[in-house]
Structures are given as C-alpha cells and as structure tokens.
Specification:
Layout (H helix, E strand, L loop, with lengths): L11 E5 L3 H10 L6 E6 L5 E5 L2 E2 L3 E9 L2 E10 L3 H9 L2 E8 L3 H10 L4 E7 L2 E6 L2 H4 L2 E6 L9 E3 L1
C-alpha cells in the first residue's frame, strides 16, 4: 500500500484529558458538543496491546462524538504504561493525534514501518484495531491508523 493511499482524510481528532467527566461537562455545557458515547478500552475488549513495541496492558476511558464529518475523541488514561499518560506527563492536556480510517491496518502499518516510522502503541478489537505511529517529527502530530470494526459495541454510557 503506498503511503499516500493512507491519507484520504482526517477522520478523527483525539485529545488527552485528565478527567473525562469534567471535560465532557465543558464540551457539552459550554460548547454544546455531544452527545458522547463512553467506553472503557481494556482487555478483553481490546487485545494484542503494545506500547513502544512491547506487549502491554493498559486501560483508558474514551468518549466519542461526531463534530461534522470528524469524530472527536477524548481519552483519559486509567492505568498501565501508555502514550496518553506520557503525553499528559510531558505536555498536559491537549490534542494528541489525528486519526485516519483504513480497511487495511496491517498493510498501512507495514508501509509506514518500511519508511522508518515505528508504532508507538497498538491494539485490536473485534474485527478492527488501531496503531499510533511515531510521526511527530515528520507531521508535527501523532498519526493513528484506525480499522473500525463492522459494528461498535454498545457504549457503557452516554453524555448528556
């Protein structure tokens, strides 16, 4: 897969937050953004988790909503080594990544790795998965490749 074929558009903007509930209140009450679908991503929902090339186990709460054609994702790291907590520790809250949907996650990862871009963190779920690529030096932001499952599981909660 040529790398240029990975970029058909920006499908997601991901922000790391310290307190998901507080952030949801701000987005919904001040800016009117929502409703949000809330999930806890952890095993067994997410499998084959890696961080910096090594097997890992981490947990995070996420909230998803559509803002026009782009999915907005808020991520609160809960436990385990992960790139979200690294981001919070080094930079504080803010825009963490842009995400591009793909129907060929493994081929996309191989194409980027063939250009010397390594995987920072990854995981699998159902018939989908994700890989955060180390593109900060070349793009100024982390790129997440996302293979969406055919059907998302029901959210644990919604806001508001």
């Amino acid at each position: 897969m040529p790398i240029k074929d990975l970029f058909k558009g920006i499908d997601q903007v991901g922000l790391v937050v310290r307190n998901l509930n507080k952030s949801l209140e701000s987005y919904a009450n001040i800016f009117g953004i929502g409703p949000w679908q809330i999930y806890t991503f952890q095993p067994p929902l997410v499998t084959d988790m890696t961080v910096h090339g090594k097997p890992a186990s981490y947990r995070m709460r996420i909230a998803l909503t559509m803002l026009g054609p782009v999915m907005l994702e808020l991520i609160e790291p809960l436990e385990g080594e992960n790139i979200y907590q690294e981001f919070l520790d080094n930079r504080g809250e803010g825009v963490h990544h842009i995400g591009c949907y793909t129907d060929a996650l493994d081929r996309g990862v191989r194409a980027l790795e063939g250009s010397g871009i390594r995987v920072l963190q990854s995981g699998r779920f159902a018939d989908g998965g994700y890989a955060y690529m180390d593109t900060e030096k070349s793009l100024g932001i982390i790129l997440e490749l996302i293979q969406m499952p055919a059907e998302m599981p029901p959210p644990q909660a919604t806001w508001p």
